[in-house]
Amino acid sequence: MRPLTEMTEREYFASVGQRPGMFVGKPSFHMLTAFLAGYDQHAMRHGGHGLTGWHDWLVARRGRDCSHAWPGQVLHITFPDGWDDVWNLPPEDEQRATRVLFELLDEFAAEREAAQGHNPRID
């Protein structure tokens, strides 16, 4: 793995998605969304982009708005027919939600990089 200072946000997100346990201990959708919220807050405090635009991108991707924050939007995309208990997803749903989360993050980061015309590094 390359040093963090040499990674783009997209590469960093991919690194987290490939080895989530290295970043959050026991990986779960909720632990990873909490980790990413912390990442976002740190980036914003220090002049980075963080996840700016992520919620709006997800709403546009889904094609309809609701009162859910971005983790709920990811779950709506993952499970369009809904889910029983957001805090107790079955293991296969946890895995699916985590996979979709990082697929969506990759698409979002790729579009942002293309719009910026270069590969911004993590700040």
Would you write up a description of this structure?
This protein is mainly α and 123 residues long. It has one domain (4-116). It contains six helices and no strands. It has helices at residues 9-18, 20-24, 29-45, 54-62, 70-78, 91-116. Helix 1 (9-18) packs antiparallel against helix 6, helix 4 (54-62) packs parallel to helix 5 and helix 5 (70-78) packs across helix 6. The longest helix has 26 residues, at 91-116. The relative contact order is 0.19. The mean pLDDT is 90.
Q: Which keywords apply here?
A:
mainly alpha; 6 helices
What's the gist of this structure?
By secondary structure, the protein is an all-alpha fold.
The general outline is: globular
The biggest beta sheet is recorded as: none
Structural class of the helix and strand makeup? mainly alpha
Task: Kindly state the percentage of residues in helix.
Answer: 55-70%
Mean of the pLDDT scores?
A: 90
Question: Would you report the number of β strands?
Answer: 0
Number of domains: 1
Strand content range: under 5%
Unreliably modeled segments: none
Reading the helices and strands in chain order gives HHHHHH
N-to-C span: 18 Å
Number of helices: 6
Radius of gyration: 14 Å
